[in-house]
Amino acid sequence: EAGVAQSPRYKIIEKRQSVAFWCNPISGHATLYWYQQILGQGPKLLIQFQNNGVVDDSQLPKDRFSAERLKGVDSTLKIQPAKLEDSAVYLCASSSELAGPYEQYFGPGTRLTVT
Amino acid sequence: AQSVAQPEDQVNVAEGNPLTVKCTYSVSGNPYLFWYVQYPNRGLQFLLKYITGDNLVKGSYGFEAEFNKSQTSFHLKKPSALVSDSALYFCAVYAGFNRDDKIIFGKGTRLHILP
């Protein structure tokens, strides 16, 4: 089966600019996650969708970050405006309802550099 | 609050020797524990999980992990290391008792297998 797809793989922007990331989960996976992985740290959950509804966005900086999953499949994560501390790898993951959150499949990530 | 600690930033092991990557956790109630591996420029890959049952859990690529409730540990082990095992390893914990519970990742341990 195809894995989780993400694009772009790399992005360099200046601070105060906007950026958007795209994720396509594994077919049939109802749950989609966006993580932020800062260098030297483990992934931190930003937002979790169940189909097209938000389950958890408690760690999403809502003044600058937004995410949507309109049709319950693809998702986009946007940062507007970006700050230097947003430099990180943004990982998308998905899981099936059968396996639950215990077995997540991750995409390759988008490495964001804010200068 | 749940948390997970990986006390070693890096572990060096000679090829063919046994390896151990340490992980300790803190969670109220019974934990769900996981190990993920991250190869360069790739997303995290699920290795194994402990939910309940035998304390010794076997996973992908010959890895196993031992759940020790009294020591609140979940160390990752492999009897004979391969150079290809060199990667970044993340331990994770999930409590799942509250609605806002989420999988918490450790900061990661870089495993370096010496040829």
Structure notes:
The complex is a heterodimer of chains A (115) and B (115). By secondary structure, chain A is mostly beta strands. Chain A has strands at 5-7, 10-13, 19-24, 31-37, 44-50, 53-56, 65-68, 75-79, 88-95, 105-106, 110-114. In chain A, strands 2, 4, 5, 6, 9, 10 and 11 form a seven-stranded mixed β-sheet that branches. In chain A, strands 1-3-8-7 form a four-stranded antiparallel β-sheet, with no helix packed on it. In chain A, a hairpin with a 6-residue loop joins strand 7 (65-68) and strand 8 (75-79). The mean pLDDT of chain A is 93. Helix content of chain B is 0%, strand content 50%. In chain B, the strands form three sheets. In chain B, strands 2, 5, 6, 10, 11 and 12 form a six-stranded mixed β-sheet that branches. Chain B has a four-stranded antiparallel β-sheet with strand order 3-9-8-7, with no helix packed on it. In chain B, strands 1-4 form a two-stranded antiparallel ribbon. In chain B, strand 5 (32-38) and strand 6 (44-50) form a beta hairpin. The chains are: A mainly beta (115), B mainly beta (115).
